[in-house]
């Protein structure tokens, strides 16, 4: 074992200072054993099958080697179909169907690579006696039929159809056969136990003996030749005529013979092996390997692909011997100088010597270095030992001026003059002391004018020109470009690469600054940054630059290779083609770039060298095992000599090679597919499938929709370049492009949509050559059944059937629905007629409530005050108004039903209309309104007097009703002689109707607007007026703008009328009807404006300050007058026309009670009530609502607004008086409770409402229980009573006339007073005990309530008690 390792080690060692190229040791030896995954190091047999899989028979299981790893098959008692029958494996063969046959010490096993299952033969559970090591031996003929030689049954043939072995009728059955083999010509060779070697021809079951050889103890077949040995260790060869020829007698017995590279290799039964030529003469071929393996016992040979020879050993595992095809010269040792233990960064030629710049060892000179020589001895020298200012040499450049420029980490740049053999340091160059300081020169490039460009690390770009001056070197020109953020400087001051560009330009590679293009003439920089746009550089860390012969610029970065044609660089966003590991590179860090004579691009990386075909972008990789100094190379370390030899520097020396001598492998390995799992139907883990290049597989899979995924592992069956092989895959019908996974063959797809696909693969051979795309398997993903076409057809059938059934059903339903709709329409019509009637009568009833209220009230007052003419006049007026309403209602219904007739009289229209319009002069005076009447004189004609009177009265009543005080009403009556019409225009200001509601003005009981200037309502008057106008063939229109409303009435004035329409009368009165005069006439002395009455009431309040006051809010002046007359002798009465006026009035005067109508302009009674009850200062005032709307719903609405009483019109005056008196008395009684000492007792005894009693008791008890809590406030009371802040405030204010804070303070003071009289506690203890925290505040509030201090109160109460 130690000798093997030693031999392997020697194969990799360089001796002395010798540089190996093509004459390096011709073979590599690699040992694979248990450390690599082999199950046992004692090997019995090797077999390379037709798929190029290597099978190894060991004493502990069957092994399969795929070039990367071992797969072990062992015996398993639990699962016979997935394990071999015994772990001691002796032989391996393959039949014509691709099955692998294994012989063990107990029987035979047959393995199916596709299914991963075993079939076992001859194994029995019964114990056997006398089992030998060769109980079963396998052999196959040229047709790959399987035979088995057994010790008990002789030679057997496997019948594939019957899956069993049958006996072969071999002659001389009594003589045992010890060994049997078929040769290449299908002749059967048998070795008998008596030492006879026989050869037969086989024809079905016929065995014909050709010849016998005596005294044989073993035989071998190799390279179509048969050899046999004797007991005396003599070796004979049998020729084509079956004649035995003596070869030699050997000192050792022979274990195995094989043929390799035109030589015979003989393994001795003891240890070691020997090599002979085709004539079996001893040969020096593989003499180092023979020496290295002399102590190794070889048990078997196997010739593999890729010129590999496999050796099975007894205890040393598997030995792999293969020729060393290294095209790379490698220099990584230099005697005892240890020169190349540092990184190589630069190359230069100086005469016949090769100069190598290192990082740490300065410059190494290799004299007489011949790169084309296959082997040479060198004596490395250090020409400047101790002379260089710095031994880190990063750049060497031999210029056209015959100077060698040396870039180091030292100051400036050094120059070597070969003609004088002198090293000139920067400080020794004339004029250098006057220049800016710079150092760390990493790149050197010379122009045609001999000037030199220097790329530095931290000092930007230097342009320098040197010239000889006698024996010195002087600076002729110097210019420095550094980063300044503009186009006058590079993107970064760290420059690792320089390259000539076209058109007098210079390419510059900046670390972390991107690619720069310098215009030497304009002296400007153009910068190309990564990630700035689609198609930009792969990274900004530029390490290497090269421009090839086709003007392609190659840019190496720390994240991939980029290239661009220089002619495309002038576009605003030039596109850079990227090549990364995803495209086949072994590593993304590009250290150096160059081009060989065949125009191939070579790059160095952190994982070896790469050759790229720039036309096809095919990539070939070379790694350390190919002869490289290591896999890692150095930045910018590349050089090409005059003969086209390429030099690359790395971390352990350098490599040199002639690219045209590197012959790439054009053959392709097979592809091993393992771990194939289509959906959840996983194949056996031991199942294998091998795909050969350009051959499609027979696999195909159909998966359900729920199992729409698969995964597998690809592995190239290469025993030399497995790690360099790459893979690509494509699911046709699913993927848009090929996936290149590099050397990782793990593939997984999931969530594939239903459809038919073809999975294709291709792979490379490790040298950048790819196979054609190959179909691995067709794949079908089934759709869910409910989404398939049969399912859709079924759905269509069901839908069609359903549609027919539904259609029939809908038809019957339609008939039924139409019948029901007809019945419903009739019922709806009846309900609409009923609702219309109810609505009409409800509104009419509302119109009648006001005169009825006045009539009832006036009659009651007239009974009490018999001689008061006001109430008699009021009775007469409201009775007339009620009569007019009823009469108008009857005429309205007649007009609607078409029963109202025209009744014409010839009339002085001017006088008649003047009399009617004059009736409204008193009303204008009462409201302080401007009333203008413009009536043309001498208007005469046929008119319907009654209808004209009603129309004018309704329009004027409407105008005065909706005009506030101090507004204006205009009446304009004209005759149009041309059209022969009477035109009446009535305009009132202070009112507005929205334009979208003008057409609704003539609807019955129309209401519009929300504010005081927009409020407009009508009963049936305007609707009746339009009916009358239409009856007389006239028209009426309305308009509203600029805060006025204008009605225009146009009536025809016919010259003649139908005699039937004329009213026969002796004389026609021009005065208005008695009914109209009665309606408008009023008791003026008692219907004064609210402002005037309030002034009188204020004076009365001053004289009688103990008299309670009542505020009456109603837009009807007669109603206000009636209520004032009813309650005026008991209370001071204030008035307001609506809620807004009332709120404004209450800012000055606060009444004790409020009586309000509900329906009022501007702000109605409900809104007014809510305002009062939500205002803390007024929420305690009793509020009575009067309304013509007396339903339960309307009363509920009033009480929700906060009203204390709700009285429907018409009402009895006595009832109103009682309600006012009771509300005021109840408030006074509640307020008096809190003036007494024992409040809780008073609440309990006083006759108050149960609801209020419960509220107060609960509230007082809570305060008394928490009276010592100084933080007790209204918020705590609200939470305890479960009331909102406003509702609680309103309630407590109404009951106690105190705010919550005042109420708490009042209870505290009452408790303090009690403690002063009933306890001996000090005053300080008492005010703290009652929740006061400030003594002065306590004393002040106590004195306000009791008009004395606490001590005085205690003394006074004690004296009283005494």
TrEMBL record:
PROSITE patterns registered for this protein in UniProt:
HIS_KIN, HTH_ARAC_FAMILY_2, RESPONSE_REGULATORY
**E.C. code:** 2.7.13.3
Q: Name one GO molecular function term.
A: DNA-binding transcription factor activity
State what protein this is by name: histidine kinase
Q: Which SMART domains match?
A: HATPase_c (SM00387), HisKA (SM00388), HTH_ARAC (SM00342), REC (SM00448)
Kindly list the positions at which 4-aspartylphosphate occurs in this protein: 1157
Q: Which InterPro entries does this UniProt record tie to the protein?
A: HATPase_dom, His_kinase_dom, HisK_dim/P_dom, HTH_AraC, Reg_prop, Sig_transdc_resp-reg_receiver, Y_Y_Y
Instruction: Tell me the keywords, alphabetical order.
Output: Membrane, Phosphoprotein, Signal, Transmembrane, Transmembrane helix
Domain Histidine kinase as annotated: residue spans: 843-1055
Transmembrane regions listed in the UniProt entry: 784-809
Organism field:
Pinibacter aurantiacus
Q: Where is the HTH araC/xylS-type domain?
A: 1257-1356
Annotated signal sequence is 1-21
């Amino acid at each position: 074992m130690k000798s093997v390792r030693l031999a392997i080690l020697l194969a990799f060692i360089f001796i002395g200072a010798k540089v190996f190229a093509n004459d390096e040791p011709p073979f590599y030896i690699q040992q694979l054993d248990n450390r690599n995954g082999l199950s046992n190091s004692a090997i019995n047999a090797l077999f390379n099958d037709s798929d190029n899989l290597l099978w190894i028979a060991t004493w502990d299981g069957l092994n399969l080697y795929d070039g990367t790893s071992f797969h072990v098959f062992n015996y398993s008692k639990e699962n016979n179909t997935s394990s071999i029958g015994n772990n001691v494996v002796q032989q391996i063969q393959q039949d014509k169907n691709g099955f692998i046959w294994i012989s063990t010490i107990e029987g035979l096993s047959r393995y199916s690579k596709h299914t991963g299952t075993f079939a076992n033969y001859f194994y029995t559970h019964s114990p056997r006696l006398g089992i030998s090591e060769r109980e079963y031996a396998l052999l196959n003929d040229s047709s790959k039929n399987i035979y088995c030689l057994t010790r008990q049954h002789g030679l057997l043939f496997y019948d594939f159809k019957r899956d069993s072995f049958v006996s072969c009728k071999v002659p001389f059955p009594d003589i045992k056969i010890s060994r049997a083999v078929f040769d290449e010509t299908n002749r059967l060779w048998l070795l008998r136990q008596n030492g006879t070697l026989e050869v037969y021809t086989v024809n079905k079951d016929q065995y014909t003996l050709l010849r016998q050889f005596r005294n044989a103890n073993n035989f071998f077949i190799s390279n179509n030749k048969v050899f046999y040995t004797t007991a005396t260790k003599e070796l004979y060869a049998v020729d084509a005529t079956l004649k035995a020829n003596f070869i030699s007698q050997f000192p050792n017995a022979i274990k195995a013979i094989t043929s390799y590279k035109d030589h015979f290799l003989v393994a001795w039964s003891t240890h070691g092996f020997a090599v002979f030529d085709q004539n079996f003469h001893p040969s020096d071929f593989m003499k180092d390997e023979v020496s290295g393996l002399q102590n190794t016992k070889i048990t078997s040979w196997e010739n593999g692909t890729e010129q590999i020879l496999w050796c099975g050993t007894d205890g040393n595992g598997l030995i792999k011997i293969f020729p060393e095809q290294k095209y790379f010269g490698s220099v990584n040792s230099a005697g005892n100088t240890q020169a190349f233990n540092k990184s190589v960064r630069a190359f230069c030629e100086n005469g016949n010597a090769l100069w190598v710049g290192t990082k740490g060892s300065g410059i190494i000179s290799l004299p007489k270095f011949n790169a084309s020589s296959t082997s040479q001895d060198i004596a490395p020298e250090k020409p400047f030992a101790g002379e260089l200012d710095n031994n880190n040499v990063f750049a060497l450049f031999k210029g056209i001026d015959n100077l060698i420029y040396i870039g180091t980490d030292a100051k400036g740049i050094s120059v070597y003059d070969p003609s004088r053999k002198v090293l000139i340091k920067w400080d020794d160059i004339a004029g250098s002391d006057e220049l800016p300081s710079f150092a760390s020169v990493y790149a050197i490039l010379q122009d045609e004018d001999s000037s030199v460009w220097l790329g530095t690390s931290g000092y930007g770009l230097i342009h320098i020109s040197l010239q000889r001056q006698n024996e010195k070197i002087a600076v002729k020109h110097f210019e420095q470009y550094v980063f300044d953020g503009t186009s006058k400087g590079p993107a970064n001051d760290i420059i690792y690469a320089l390259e000539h560009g076209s058109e007098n330009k210079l390419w510059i590679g900046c670390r972390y600054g991107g690619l720069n293009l310098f215009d030497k003439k304009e002296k400007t920089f153009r910068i190309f940054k990564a990630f700035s746009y689609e198609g930009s550089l792969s990274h900004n860390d530029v390490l290497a630059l090269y421009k090839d012969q086709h003007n392609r610029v190659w840019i190496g970065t720390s994240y991939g290779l980029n290239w661009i044609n220089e002619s495309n660089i002038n576009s605003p966003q030039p596109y850079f083609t990227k090549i990364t590991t995803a495209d086949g590179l072994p590593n993304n860090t590009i250290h150096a770039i160059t081009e060989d004579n065949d125009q191939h691009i070579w790059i160095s990386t952190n994982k070896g060298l790469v050759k790229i075909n720039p036309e096809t972008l095919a990539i070939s990789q070379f790694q350390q095992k190919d002869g490289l100094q290591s896999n890692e190379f150095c930045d910018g370390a590349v050089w090409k000599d005059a003969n086209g030899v390429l030099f690359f520097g790395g971390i352990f020396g350098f490599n040199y090679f002639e690219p045209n001598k590197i012959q790439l492998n054009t053959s392709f390995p097979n592809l091993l597919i393992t771990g194939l799992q289509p959906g959840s139907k996983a194949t056996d883990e031991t199942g294998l499938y091998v795909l050969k290049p350009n051959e499609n597989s027979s696999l195909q899979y159909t998966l359900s929709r729920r199992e729409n995924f698969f995964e597998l592992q690809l592995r190239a069956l290469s025993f030399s370049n497995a790690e360099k092989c790459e893979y690509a895959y494509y699911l046709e019908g699913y993927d848009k492009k090929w996936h290149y996974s590099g050397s990782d063959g793990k593939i997984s797809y999931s969530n594939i949509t239903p459809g038919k696909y073809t999975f294709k693969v291709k792979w490379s051979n490790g040298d950048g050559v790819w196979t054609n795309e190959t179909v691995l398997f067709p794949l079908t993903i089934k759709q869910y059944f409910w989404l398939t076409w049969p399912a859709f057809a079924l759905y269509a059938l069901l839908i069609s059937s359903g549609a027919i059934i539904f259609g029939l059903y809908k038809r019957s339903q339609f008939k039924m629905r139409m019948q029901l709709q007809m019945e419903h329409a009739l019922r709806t019509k009846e309900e609409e007629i009923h609702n219309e009637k109810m609505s009409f009568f409800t509104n009419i009833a509302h119109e009648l409530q006001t005169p009825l209220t006045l009539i009832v009230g006036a009659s009651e007052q007239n009974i009490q005050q018999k001689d008061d003419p006001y109430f008699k006049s009021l009775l007469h007026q409201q009775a007339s108004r009620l009569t007019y309403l009823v009469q108008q209602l009857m005429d309205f219904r007649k007009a609607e039903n078409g029963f109202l007739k025209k009744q014409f009289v010839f009339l002085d229209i001017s006088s008649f209309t003047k009399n009617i319009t004059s009736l409204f002069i008193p009303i204008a005076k009462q409201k302080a309104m401007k009333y203008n009447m413009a009536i043309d004189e001498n208007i005469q004609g046929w008119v319907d007097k009654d209808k004209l009177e009603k129309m004018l009265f309704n329009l004027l009543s409407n105008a005065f009703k909706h005009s506030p005080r101090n507004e204006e009403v205009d009446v304009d009556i004209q005759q149009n002689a041309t059209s022969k019409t009477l035109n009446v225009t009535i305009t009132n200001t202070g009112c507005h109707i929205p334009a979208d509601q003008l057409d609704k003005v003539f609807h019955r009981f129309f209401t519009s607007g929300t504010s005081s200037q927009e409020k407009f309502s009508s009963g049936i008057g305007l609707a009746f007026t339009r009916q009358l106008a239409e009856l007389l063939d006239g028209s009426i229109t309305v308009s509203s703008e600029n805060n006025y409303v204008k009605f225009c009435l146009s009536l025809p004035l016919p010259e003649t009328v139908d005699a039937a329409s004329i009213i026969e009368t002796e004389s026609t009165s021009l005065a208005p009807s008695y009914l109209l005069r009665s309606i408008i006439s009023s008791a003026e002395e008692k219907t004064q404006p609210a402002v005037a009455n309030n002034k009188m009431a204020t004076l009365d309040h001053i004289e009688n300050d103990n008299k309670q006051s009542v505020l009456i809010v109603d837009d009807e002046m007669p109603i206000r007058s009636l209520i004032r007359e009813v309650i005026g002798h008991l209370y001071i009465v204030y008035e307001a026309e609506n809620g807004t006026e009332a709120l404004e009035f209450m800012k000055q005067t606060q009444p004790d009670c409020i009586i309000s109508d509900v329906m009022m302009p501007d702000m109605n009674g409900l809104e007014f009530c809510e305002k009062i009850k939500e205002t803390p200062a007024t929420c305690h005032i009793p509020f009575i609502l009067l309304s013509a709307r007396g339903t339960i719903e309307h009363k509920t609405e009033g009480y929700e607004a906060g009203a204390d009483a709700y009285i429907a019109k018409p009402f009895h005056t006595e009832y109103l008086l009682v309600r006012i008196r009771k509300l005021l008395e109840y408030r006074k009684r509640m307020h008096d409770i809190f003036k007494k000492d024992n409040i809780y007792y008073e609440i309990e005894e006083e006759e108050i409402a149960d609801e209020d009693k419960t509220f107060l008791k609960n509230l007082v008890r809570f305060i008394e229980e928490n009276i010592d809590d100084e933080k007790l406030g209204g918020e705590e009371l609200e939470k305890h009573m479960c009331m909102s802040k406003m509702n609680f405030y309103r309630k407590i204010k109404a009951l106690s006339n105190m705010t919550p804070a005042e109420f708490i303070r009042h209870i505290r003071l009452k408790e303090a007073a009690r403690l002063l009289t009933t306890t001996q506690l000090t005053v300080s203890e008492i005010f703290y005990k009652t929740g006061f925290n400030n003594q002065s505040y306590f004393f002040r509030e106590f004195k306000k309530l009791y008009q004395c201090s606490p001590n005085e109160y205690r003394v006074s109460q004690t004296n009283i008690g005494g």
